[in-house]
Write a structure and sequence with these properties.
The complex is a heterodimer of chains A (about 550) and B (about 450). Helix content of chain A is about 35%, strand content about 20%. Chain A contains 21 helices and 21 strands. Chain B folds into four domains: about 200 residues, no CATH class; about 70 residues, no CATH class; about 60 residues; about 70 residues, no CATH class. In chain B, about 65% of the residues lie in helices and about 5% in strands. Chain B has a two-stranded antiparallel sheet with strand order 1-2. Classes of the chains: A alpha/beta (about 550), B mainly alpha (about 450). The interface between A and B is large, with 114 and 101 residues.
C-alpha cells in the first residue's frame, strides 16, 4: 500500500539528512506505528507519504514514495487527497471551517463529490466516530479528544485508503486517548484501512499495532518488524516490555492482558514485599491555595480549592482535558488572579510580583512550550536565559545538555521538533532552579530516554528541597516521579494523597505495572527490580 | 428515497443571505431617520428576532458586543459635541472653558457654552450610527459571516477562502497576544512599556505565520486547489485568455491616458480586453470541480424574511414621501418625536422572521451537553480544551426522538433505530464509506 524505496531527505540549509536510505513497505490493512527518539524524523517520514514532504516543505528528496501505485514525485498532496488522509500533530490548527459538519465535508467538496454522496458519507462518519452529538457544534468549543476525532473524520469522509496520524493521543487524557485509538482500530478492522501513525506513548498504541517501524535517527538504518520483534531490541520500550524483560517472559507481552497471564509467578514472588516507602514531606508549605475559586464567564474552573505544597514534594495534578489543571498552574505562576480566595507562593502573592522576582520564586513550562522560546537560535536562547536570570554564562546550556544531549546550538527554535522545543523550554525554566517548579504536560513529544533524564532531574530537584507541581496525562510519568497525586474534576479536588494510593487502583490512572501486578502496590519496573534484587522491606 | 432528497435540500436554518438582507434593510431604515422612537423600535425588533432565532454558537453573542459598541459610539459622539461641536442656539446647560484660537482656525471652536439642543442632536446622530451597528451585529448573530461566504459564486471562491481565513485569524491573534504576554512574564521579561510591546510583536507574528503555514498544509493535504488532469489544456487556454485580456486592457488604458499615441485604439482595446478577460475568468471557474455540501436552499421562508425587511424600508420611504419632516427629530423647537404610522407598521412587520424563520438545526443531544458553558469557557481561556472532556453522551435515544418530532423543517438526525438503519444500508453499498461514488 505504502512503499518507500531508498528514500532520503534533507531540509533546505540543514547539514545532515533527516531521512537516509529508507526502505519500507506497509501492507494494506495494517496499523503501523512509527517509533524513534525525539527528532529522528518521524514527522518527516509521515509527511512524505502524501507528498507534503517535499512538495510543501521544500528540501531535497531522493528515492521514491508510492501510495497505492501513485508516486508522490508526480502527484502533489492535493492530488493524493482521495488516497491519503493526513492528520497533523495539532488538529485545531488544521481546521479550515468553523462547524463540525462543514469540516467533515471540506475534503469532499474539494474532490468534487455529488451533494447526495457527501451528505451520506458525513452521516456515516458521524456515526463511525461517535461524533453525531457534535455535528453542529463550533469547532472551537470542542475538547481535545473531540477535536482529534473530528480531524480524523474530516479526512475519512474522502474515503482514503491510507490514514496518516502524527501523535494522535499525546495531548489527550487516558480516557480520550483510548477512545481515539478504539476508533482507529475499528477503521483498520472493519474497513481495512491502512494506518500509519507516530507516537511516543508506546504503552498506549502498542497493543493495537500490527507492525512497528523503528527510526533510530542519526543515519542508522530503519528497522521494520512486528511489535514483539522490534520491542525485543528497541531502545524505546513501554514499561510493560521492560517488566517482561526483567522477568524474562517470552514472548514479550504487548498488552496488559498478555502480561497478567504470565505474571502469576512474579506476583507470588512479590507477595511478601512492599516497595521502599517514601519519606513524607516536611517543612512549611511552599505554596498554598486557600478557598481559591476561579471563574471564566459562567464556568467554574476551580471551585474553592484548598491545597498546600511542601518542599521536596512532586505533585502530579491529573484529570480529564479541561478539568482545571492548567488553571491551577496559572494561578501559582501569577498569570491570572483568582476570582475569590488567596494564592501564596513563598509567602507572596504571585500576581503582584514583578517579572524578575516572579521567576526567582516560581518557574512554569506551559503546555505549548514554543511560547517560551522566541530567540533566533538555541545557543542565543540559552544566553538570553542566563542574562534574564543573572546566572553564570552557560548554565542554561549545561542544563539543556542534561535534558537532551547533542542539540545543535545553531538551530532555529522553530525548526526543532516538538520534543526538542520542550527540552529547550525545560532547560530555560530549570536553569535558575526556582524553589517552585510548575510543568504543564512536560512529556508531550518527549521520547523515553528524554523522559528518564527529566525524571532524574526532577527527583534531584525534589531531594534538594524544591517543590514540583506537574499537570499531566502521562500516568507512567506520575508512577515514576510523583510523590503525591491530586485529581481534579470540574474544578474540584476529588482525590489528594500519596501517588501510590491515588493511582494504584484507579482504572484510568493506573500505570501498566500496577495493572499487571494488582493487587500489589507496585508502580514502576525499577521498584520491582529493587525489590527482587535487594529483597525489599518485608511486609 | 427520502435520504437522497434530504442530501440535496437539507435545511440548516435560514439562508444566511436572507438574514443579511433583512438586517441590511433594517440598517437602511435606521440610516434614513433620526426619529428616536423609530430607531429604538428597530433595535427592539432586531434584538427580538435574534433572541428568538439565534443558536448557541459563539458568534451568536455578537449582538451584545455590538450593543456595547453602539453605546460607546453615542458617548463618544456626545463628548466630541461638547468639546468641539458647532453651537446650536437654544437652552444653555453649562459652559465649558473656551480655548481662544487664532483667526485662521475660525471654523473650529473648543469649549464654550453647551446647549441641550446640541447635545440631543449629537446623541440622536450617535444613536443612528449605533443602530446601524446593531443591525450588523444582529446579522452576525443569526448567520456567521463564514456561512455567508459559503454562498459566494464559484468564481469568487478563492477570495472567499482568503476572507474566511483572515476572519478566523482575528480572535486567534487576540488569544495569541495574551499567551505571549503570559510567556514573557514567565521568562522574567517586562510586559509593559515599549520594550514589552517590541517583545510581543515578533512572537505573535511568528505564531500567526506558523498557524497559517499549518493551515495551508492542511488545506493542501485535503485537496484544496485540485484540478481534473484531463482539462489541463482548457486551463492553459483560460490562463492565456486572462493574461491576454489584462494586457489588452492595460494597453487600452495607456492609449486613453497618453493622448496622441493611440487615442483611437484606446476604447476598443479596453472593451476587447474586458471581454477576453471575462471569458478567461468564466472558463477558469468552470474548470473547477468543487462541489458544495448541503447548499442552503432558498425557499418560502427566505422570501418572507427578505420581504419583511423590505416592508420596513418601504414604510420609511413612503412616510418620507408623505411627510418629509416626520422622520426627522425636531430639535428647535424641541418636540416629542412623532411616530409616522406607515413607518411604524413597516418596522413592526420586520419582526416577522422571529416566527417565520426556521430554527437553526441543533441536535438536542448537543444542546444538552452544555455548550453554552463550554463556549464561554473556551472564549475566556482559549488554551483550555473544552469543558466536558470527551464524555459527551453518545447514546441518548430519548433526545433523538424528541428531535425528530421537533417543529420546523429541520433535518432529522441520522437514525439509529433498526428500521432506518436497514433502509440506509439498502440505499448504499455497505463498503467503506460510500466508496466508488467518488469522482
Amino acid at each position: 500500500m505504502i512503499e518507500f524505496r531508498n528514500v532520503g531527505f534533507t531540509y533546505d540549509g540543514a547539514s545532515m539528512a533527516t531521512l537516509e536510505g529508507v526502505d519500507l513497505t506497509v501492507r494494506e490493512g495494517e496499523l503501523c506505528v512509527v517509533v524513534g527518539p525525539t527528532g529522528s524524523g518521524k514527522t518527516t517520514l509521515l509527511g512524505a507519504v502524501n507528498g507534503l514532504v517535499p512538495h510543501f516543505t521544500g528540501g531535497r528528496m531522493s528515492g521514491e514514495v508510492t501510495v497505492e501505485g501513485r508516486s508522490t514525485r508526480e502527484a502533489p498532496p492535493r492530488e493524493l487527497a482521495d488516497v491519503v488522509g493526513m492528520v497533523g500533530q495539532n488538529p485545531a490548527a488544521s481546521f479550515v471551517t468553523d462547524v463540525v459538519e462543514d469540516e467533515l465535508a471540506y475534503t469532499m467538496e474539494n474532490l468534487g463529490l455529488a451533494p447526495a454522496v457527501m451528505r451520506h458519507r458525513v452521516e456515516d462518519t458521524l456515526d463511525l466516530l461517535g461524533l453525531h452529538d457534535l455535528r453542529s457544534r463550533p469547532l472551537r468549543t470542542l475538547s481535545g479528544g473531540q477535536q482529534q476525532r473530528v480531524a480524523i473524520g474530516a479526512v475519512l469522509t474522502a474515503s482514503p485508503r491510507v490514514l496518516v496520524l502524527d501523535e494522535p493521543t499525546s495531548a489527550l487524557d487516558p480516557a480520550a486517548a483510548e477512545e481515539v485509538l478504539a476508533s482507529l482500530t475499528r477503521l483498520v478492522h472493519d474497513l481495512g484501512l491502512t494506518v500509519l501513525l507516530a507516537e511516543h506513548r508506546l504503552e498506549r498504541v502498542l497493543p493495537f499495532a500490527d507492525a512497528v517501524v523503528l527510526l533510530p535517527g542519526r543515519g542508522a538504518p530503519v528497522v521494520v518488524g512486528t511489535a514483539a520483534e522490534i520491542m525485543a531490541g528497541s531502545p524505546v520500550a513501554p514499561p510493560l516490555v521492560d517488566l517482561g524483560r526483567l522477568a524474562g517472559w517470552d514472548p514479550l507481552p504487548l498488552s496488559v492482558r498478555d502480561a497478567r497471564r504470565l505474571a502469576g509467578p512474579l506476583r507470588d514472588r512479590l507477595a511478601d514485599r512492599v516497595p521502599a516507602a517514601q519519606e513524607p514531606a516536611s517543612g512549611g508549605a511552599m505554596a498554598t491555595f486557600s478557598k481559591v475559586t476561579v471563574r471564566y464567564d459562567r464556568i467554574m474552573a476551580l471551585d474553592a480549592v484548598d491545597l498546600a505544597v511542601h518542599p521536596g514534594e512532586v505533585v502530579a495534578v491529573m484529570g480529564r482535558n479541561g478539568s482545571g489543571k492548567s488553571t491551577l498552574l496559572a494561578q501559582l505562576a501569577g498569570i491570572r488572579p483568582p476570582t475569590t480566595g488567596m494564592v501564596r507562593v513563598g509567602g507572596a502573592d504571585p500576581v503582584a510580583l514583578a517579572p524578575r522576582d516572579l521567576i526567582a520564586a516560581v518557574g512554569l513550562v506551559p503546555q505549548d512550550a514554543g511560547l517560551l522560546v522566541y530567540g533566533t537560535s538555541v545557543a542565543d536562547e540559552c544566553r538570553a536565559a542566563d542574562r534574564d536570570t543573572g546566572l553564570a554564562e552557560g548554565t542554561t546550556a549545561e542544563v539543556l545538555e542534561r535534558v537532551l544531549p547533542g542539540l545543535p546550538g545553531d538551530r532555529h527554535p522553530r525548526d526543532l521538533s516538538e520534543g526538542q522545543r520542550l527540552a529547550l523550554a525545560l532547560a530555560i525554566v530549570l536553569a535558575p532552579a526556582p524553589p517552585l517548579l510548575l510543568l504543564d504536560e512536560p512529556t508531550r513529544g518527549l521520547d523515553y530516554p528524554g523522559k528518564r533524564r527529566l525524571i532524574a532531574l526532577l527527583a534531584e530537584l525534589a531531594s534538594t528541597g524544591h517543590a514540583v507541581i506537574m499537570a499531566t496525562h502521562d500516568v507512567e510519568l506520575v508512577a515514576q516521579v510523583a510523590t503525591r497525586a491530586v485529581v481534579l474534576a470540574e474544578g474540584d479536588v476529588v482525590a489528594d494523597g500519596p501517588a501510590r494510593d491515588v493511582v494504584c487502583h484507579s482504572p484510568v490512572f493506573a500505570p501498566q505495572v500496577a495493572k499487571v501486578l494488582a493487587p500489589g502496590p507496585w508502580l514502576t519496573v525499577d521498584e520491582v527490580e529493587a525489590a527482587l534484587v535487594g529483597g525489599g522491606a518485608r511486609g | 428515497m427520502s435520504g437522497r432528497s434530504r442530501g440535496q435540500t437539507g435545511r440548516r436554518g435560514l439562508h444566511p443571505a436572507a438574514w443579511w438582507a433583512w438586517a441590511g434593510c433594517l440598517a437602511i431604515v435606521a440610516s434614513r431617520t433620526t426619529d428616536v422612537l423609530l430607531l429604538l423600535l428597530v433595535v427592539v425588533v432586531a434584538a427580538y428576532v435574534v433572541a428568538a432565532r439565534r443558536t448557541d454558537a459563539p458568534w451568536s453573542r455578537s449582538l451584545a458586543v455590538f450593543l456595547k459598541i453602539g453605546l460607546v459610539v453615542i458617548a463618544v459622539r456626545v463628548i466630541l459635541e461638547m468639546a468641539f461641536g458647532n453651537r446650536l442656539p437654544g437652552h444653555v446647560l453649562f459652559t465649558l472653558p473656551q480655548v481662544p484660537l487664532p483667526a485662521w482656525a475660525r471654523g473650529v471652536s473648543i469649549g464654550g457654552p453647551v446647549t441641550l439642543e446640541a447635545l440631543l442632536q449629537a446623541a440622536v446622530e450617535g444613536l443612528r450610527l449605533a443602530v446601524v451597528l446593531v443591525c450588523f451585529g444582529a446579522a452576525n448573530s443569526l448567520a456567521s459571516p463564514y456561512r455567508l461566504l459559503r454562498c459566494l459564486p464559484a468564481v469568487l471562491y478563492e477570495a472567499g477562502v482568503a476572507i474566511t481565513v483572515s476572519l478566523a485569524f482575528v480572535p486567534e491573534l487576540v488569544a495569541s497576544i495574551g499567551e505571549v504576554r503570559d510567556a514573557r512574564r514567565l521568562r522574567g521579561r517586562p510586559v509593559r512599556g515599549l520594550a514589552g510591546v517590541r517583545g510581543l510583536a515578533i512572537p505573535v507574528l511568528e505564531r500567526a505565520l506558523d498557524r497559517s503555514v499549518q493551515l495551508a498544509s492542511s488545506m493542501d493535504a485535503r485537496g484544496y486547489g485540485r484540478r481534473p488532469p484531463t482539462l489541463a489544456r482548457a486551463r492553459r487556454w483560460a490562463a492565456a485568455a486572462v493574461g491576454a485580456g489584462l494586457l489588452a486592457v492595460l494597453a487600452g488604458i495607456y492609449g486613453l491616458l497618453a493622448a496622441g499615441s493611440l487615442p483611437a485604439a484606446g476604447l476598443p482595446l479596453v472593451a476587447v480586453g474586458c471581454v477576453v478577460l471575462a471569458s478567461g475568468l468564466i472558463a477558469g471557474s468552470r474548470r473547477r470541480m468543487r462541489t458544495r455540501y448541503r447548499p442552503d436552499p432558498w425557499g418560502m421562508p427566505e422570501w418572507v424574511v427578505v420581504a419583511s425587511g423590505l416592508a420596513a424600508v418601504i414604510g420609511v420611504v413612503v412616510a418620507g414621501i408623505l411627510d418629509p419632516g416626520s422622520l426627522q427629530m425636531s430639535l428647535s423647537p424641541l418636540r416629542v418625536p412623532a411616530l409616522p404610522l406607515v413607518a411604524l407598521v413597516g418596522v413592526v412587520l420586520a419582526v416577522l422572521p422571529a416566527w417565520v424563520a426556521p430554527v437553526e438545526m441543533q441536535t438536542r443531544a448537543s444542546a444538552d451537553v452544555g455548550d453554552v458553558a463550554d463556549t464561554s469557557r473556551k472564549q475566556g481561556k482559549p488554551s483550555q480544551q473544552g469543558e466536558q472532556g470527551t464524555s459527551a453522551p453518545s447514546d441518548k435515544p430519548s433526545n433523538e426522538n424528541t428531535d425528530t418530532t421537533g417543529p420546523g423543517p429541520r433535518t432529522p438526525p441520522p437514525p439509529r433505530d433498526g428500521i432506518h438503519e436497514s433502509e440506509r444500508v439498502a440505499a448504499t453499498p455497505p463498503a467503506p464509506i460510500g466508496s466508488g461514488a467518488a469522482a
